[in-house]
Amino acid sequence: NAGVTQTPEFQVLKTGQSMTLQCAQDMNHEYMSWYRQDPGMGLRLIHYSVGAGITDQGEVPNGYNVSRSTTEDFPLRLLSAAPSQTSVYFCASRTGTGAHGYTFGSGTRLTVV
Amino acid sequence: AQSVTQLDSQVPVFEEAPVELRCNYSSSVSVYLFWYVQYPNQGLQLLLKYLSGSTLVKGINGFEAEFNKSQTSFHLRKPSVHISDTAEYFCAVTLSGGGSNYKLTFGKGTLLTVNP
After folding, report:
1. What gap in Å lies between CA B63 and CA A81, rounded to an integer?
2. Is residue A45 within 8 angstroms of chain B, CB to CB?
3. pLDDT of the residue at A37
4. Which site in A76, B12, B20, B29 is 20 to 30 Å from A30, CA atoms measured?
């Protein structure tokens, strides 16, 4: 049971480039989320999905796009990378009830130069 | 909307000393509370959770936390820490029950450093 798998682990982008961060879970979880982690800021919600075909914005959605075509996959797209998007990105998933908390992936460390 | 405040950004302690990491939350409705741990360059791992019932909850690695509804707190404690407990600890809250309880709101984290 792999849990939540994120790729790539590390990435360096030039300003203006686009890329997709991949996230897949094999636990049949309904809910999936993307967070970014910055020093002293904790984790902030970027986008989330409550099921295939349904997505919505979190607290810091600007510059990011998501889609959820299957239960398993929830990719995060950076449309035009900016240095302010240098961060560690975590994908997380959970079952329909919030009682079990989220299962997190190991993160993608992104640097935009 | 719910919010979480972790009262200490850094907590240095000596090995085998007790430690308490403080967390206060704000919500107008019932919540579930969580503590996560993040070791250097790793993802987040669930330490423990409070859903309902007994206010003292026990988690992994000898940690425990006490839910105090009147003080809206959920402090994390360990009676004797080890060097290996050095990590960042996050308190988090989500709304209980149905509806839009998707969002897990995090505090800004407390860096626990255990010194020999």
Report:
1. 40
2. yes
3. 95
4. B29
The string of pLDDT tens digits covering residues B37-78 is 999 888 899 999 998 888 999 999 999 999 999 999 999 999
pLDDT digits (tens, 9 = 90+) for A90-102: 999 988 676 777 8
B1 vs B102, higher pLDDT: B1
- Is residue B5 within 8 A of residue B25, CB to CB? The reply is yes
Query: Which residue out of B44, B95, B111 would a mutagenesis test of the A interface target, given it has the greatest number of A Cβ atoms within 10 Å?
Result: B44
d(CA B4, CA A111): 28
Q: Do B46 and A98 touch, CB atoms closer than 8 A?
A: no
Average pLDDT score over residue span A73-102 = 90
Phi, psi values for residue A30, rounded to 5°: -75, -45
For tokens 């200490």, the residue is: B8
Q: Above 60 in pLDDT, residue A85?
A: yes
Compute the distance between CA of residue B96 and CA of residue A39 in angstroms, rounded to an integer. Answer: 29
What is chain B's alpha carbon radius of gyration, rounded to the nearest angstrom? 14
Tell me the C-alpha distance between A15 and A90, whole Å. Answer: 21
| A31: phi then psi, degrees, rounded to nearest 5 | -95, 135
Instruction: Please name the member of B34, B49, B108 whose beta carbon is closest to the beta carbon of A42.
Output: B108
Q: What are the φ/ψ torsions at residue B34 (nearest 5 degrees)?
A: -140, 150
Beta-carbon separation of A98 and B42 below 8 A? no
> With bands split at pLDDT 50, 70 and 90, how would you rate the model's confidence at B98?
low
Of B44, B49, B96, the CB nearest to A104: B44
